[in-house]
Amino acid sequence: MEPSGFVAELRRELDAELIKLDELPVAQPGLAPPEAVIDALRMALKSELEASDIAALWMSTTVELDAKLGLARQCGDEAKHFELIQQRLADLGAPARGWNPVAHGYSPLYHYLRTLHSTVERLAAGQFAREGIAQKRNRQFIAWLEQIGDAATARLYREIVQPEEDAHHAFADQMLHKYANTPEAQDKARQALRKTLALADELREVAVLRTGLAAIPGS
Ligand SMILES: [Fe+2]
Ligand SMILES: [Fe+2]
Question: How close is the Cα of 218 to the center of ligand 2, in Å?
Answer without folding.
Answer: 7
